[in-house]
């Protein structure tokens, strides 16, 4: 039996916005920690304490965050030569009084450092001419120097801007020279609300062979860029588009196998606010020619968030979808056109296809992640809802029985 139990809940005073749930690696402990911020600039950092076998929450506040402001988006800059600790970038709108809208009188984004589970070293805010509703960090090479650099994408309205780290306190606007880093995005419109990137490298030389970027837009447009890097360093990009009927809430590249096989091709997951989730299979080869609809995923209001992980320990990835209708759908990936026998793993109860489990939530989901928080080899599911932060874990008794069965089967095969 496949069961999940809630092992931790941390309420927030004010609900989060979409794209404000993140994880980062603590440079001192080496462990991954959870960060979630509310619309009011008050949030929480959660870490797992191995000695006491419990999750601990630390309240955080954006120090210079002013009254009558509304958090629109959050992103984490990784530890680099400019960062001794992870840096937090947050975009916000200045409003006139309490507001339920992302509109405001002016817009800014700030950068602060996360040190010892607190927020420090605030820098002067940068004014923007548009609402920074979407932030995304991309690590890519400068085509002239071949050095890896962290690029921050800032999008909102019809605007799109790019920044790179100049030093520990300054982000430099590189929008006019983005061709040196990500030429595919030089003509992308600014109403981006979802983005993902995957790179494919040569197994022998580790040189970049191919880069895929998917951009979802608030008007329902989906952009797909497939860039091939030639042996002489020149690039060739194929650009394809699709139109959806509604706001695109997430895009995710993923592989069917939890540990991708040699030569395995990535798939592309696309979710939107009105339609069921959709997978474009083997997207590098087929582009949009082989779509599969995840039937039933549109039944609980709009899909707000998604992630991919092997939740049932069968070596194959599942898709997790958070919805505004207070459900998390867990879906098997329909790589074949027919339902196949389940690979040995935890058994789903009342399984249909492709939705194999619907996890009831306490409130609407605004973000979802899956990773090994407790360092036990199993993924926990982390969900941000309008009420706060929830962490779910597999029933460990079921996992123990599964491992025992596999060991017994292996023993019999050896005999």
From TrEMBL:
<dbReference type="GO" id="GO:0051015">
    <property type="term" value="F:actin filament binding"/>
</dbReference>
<dbReference type="InterPro" id="IPR028994">
    <property type="entry name" value="Integrin_alpha_N"/>
</dbReference>
<protein>
    <recommendedName>
        <fullName>KICSTOR complex protein kaptin-like</fullName>
    </recommendedName>
</protein>
<dbReference type="GO" id="GO:0030027">
    <property type="term" value="C:lamellipodium"/>
</dbReference>
<dbReference type="GO" id="GO:1904262">
    <property type="term" value="P:negative regulation of TORC1 signaling"/>
</dbReference>
<dbReference type="GO" id="GO:0015629">
    <property type="term" value="C:actin cytoskeleton"/>
</dbReference>
<dbReference type="InterPro" id="IPR029982">
    <property type="entry name" value="Kptn"/>
</dbReference>
<dbReference type="GO" id="GO:0034198">
    <property type="term" value="P:cellular response to amino acid starvation"/>
</dbReference>
<dbReference type="GO" id="GO:0007015">
    <property type="term" value="P:actin filament organization"/>
</dbReference>
């Amino acid at each position: 039996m496949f069961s999940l139990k809630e092992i931790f809940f941390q309420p927030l005073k004010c609900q989060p916005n979409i794209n404000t749930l993140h994880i980062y690696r603590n440079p001192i402990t080496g462990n991954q920690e959870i960060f979630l911020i509310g619309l009011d600039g008050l949030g929480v950092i959660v870490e797992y304490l191995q000695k006491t076998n419990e999750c601990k929450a630390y309240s955080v506040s954006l120090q210079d965050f002013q009254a009558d402001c509304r958090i629109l988006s959050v992103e984490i800059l990784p530890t680099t030569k400019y960062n001794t600790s992870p840096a937090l970038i947050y975009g916000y709108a200045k409003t006139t009084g309490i507001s339920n809208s992302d509109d405001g009188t002016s817009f800014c984004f700030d950068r602060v450092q996360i040190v010892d589970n607190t927020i420090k070293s605030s820098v002067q805010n940068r004014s923007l001419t548009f609402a920074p509703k979407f932030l995304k960090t991309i690590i890519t090479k400068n085509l002239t120097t071949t050095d890896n650099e962290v690029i921050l994408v800032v999008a909102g309205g019809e605007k799109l801007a790019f920044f790179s780290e100049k030093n520990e306190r300054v982000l430099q606007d590189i929008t006019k020279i983005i061709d040196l880093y990500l030429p595919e995005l030089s003509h992308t419109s600014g109403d981006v609300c979802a983005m993902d990137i995957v790179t494919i490298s040569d197994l022998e030389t580790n040189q970049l062979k191919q880069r895929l970027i998917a951009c979802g837009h608030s008007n329902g447009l989906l952009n797909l860029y497939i860039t091939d890097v030639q042996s002489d360093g020149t690039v060739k990009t194929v650009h394809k588009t699709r139109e959806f009927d509604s706001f695109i809430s997430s895009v995710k590249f993923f592989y069917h196998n939890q540990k991708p096989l040699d030569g395995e091709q990535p798939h592309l997951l696309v979710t939107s606010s009105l339609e069921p989730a959709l997978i474009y299979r083997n997207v590098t080869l087929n582009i949009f020619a082989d779509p599969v609809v995840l039937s039933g995923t549109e039944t609980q209001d709009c899909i707000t968030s998604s992630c991919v992980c092997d939740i049932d320990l069968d070596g194959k990835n599942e898709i997790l979808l958070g919805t505004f209708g207070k459900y998390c759908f867990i879906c098997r990936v329909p790589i074949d056109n027919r339902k196949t026998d389940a690979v040995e793993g935890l058994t789903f109860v009342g399984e249909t296809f492709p939705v194999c489990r619907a996890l009831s939530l306490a409130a609407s989901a605004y973000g979802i992640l899956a990773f090994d928080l407790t360092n036990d080899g199993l993924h926990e599911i982390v969900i941000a809802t309008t009420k706060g932060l929830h962490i779910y874990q597999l029933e460990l008794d079921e996992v123990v029985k599964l491992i025992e069965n596999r060991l017994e089967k292996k023993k019999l095969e050896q005999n």
